[in-house]
Specification:
Shape: elongated
Number of helices: 2
Distance between the termini: 59 Å
CATH architecture: Beta Barrel
CATH class: Mainly Beta
Strand content: over 45%
Strand order of the largest sheet: 1-2-3-5-4
CATH topology: OB fold (Dihydrolipoamide Acetyltransferase, E2P)
CATH superfamily: Nucleic acid-binding proteins
Order of helices and strands: HEEEHEE
Number of domains: 1
Helix content: 25-40%
Largest sheet: 5 strands, mixed, barrel
Length: about 100
């Protein structure tokens, strides 16, 4: 009986860890591109959202899944991207895993 409780607890813990890992890349940012800084295998786009939040979106060929899924934004484009969000003391960043739309 003690082993059954341990196994059940382990199962619940693993389910929680897996669900959190899957949710990590479900973050979406949408807004207007206000500037672009080119990099080695991609670029960083500064995106202003409708809520006046600023995100620095790192878009690289490797992270989006290859050159066929890679798109280059231009200033003024309305974009929507999904990826991994993290924050510093003063800035919000997103490592883009999927380019949802570019208008």
């Amino acid at each position: 009986m003690k082993n059954l409780k341990k196994i059940s607890l382990l199962f619940v813990l693993m389910t929680f860890v897996i669900s959190c890992a899957c949710m990590k890349d479900k973050n979406t940012v949408s807004g207007i591109v206000v500037s672009i800084e080119n990099g080695k295998d991609g670029y960083t786009a500064k995106i202003n959202t409708a809520k006046n939040e600023v995100y620095f979106a790192t878009v690289s060929i490797v992270n989006v899944g290859g050159p066929e899924k890679f798109k280059r934004f231009k200033e003024g484009d309305e974009v929507s991207v999904k990826g991994e969000i993290w924050k510093t003391d003063t800035e919000k960043h997103i490592k883009v895993k999927e380019i949802v739309s570019v208008k």
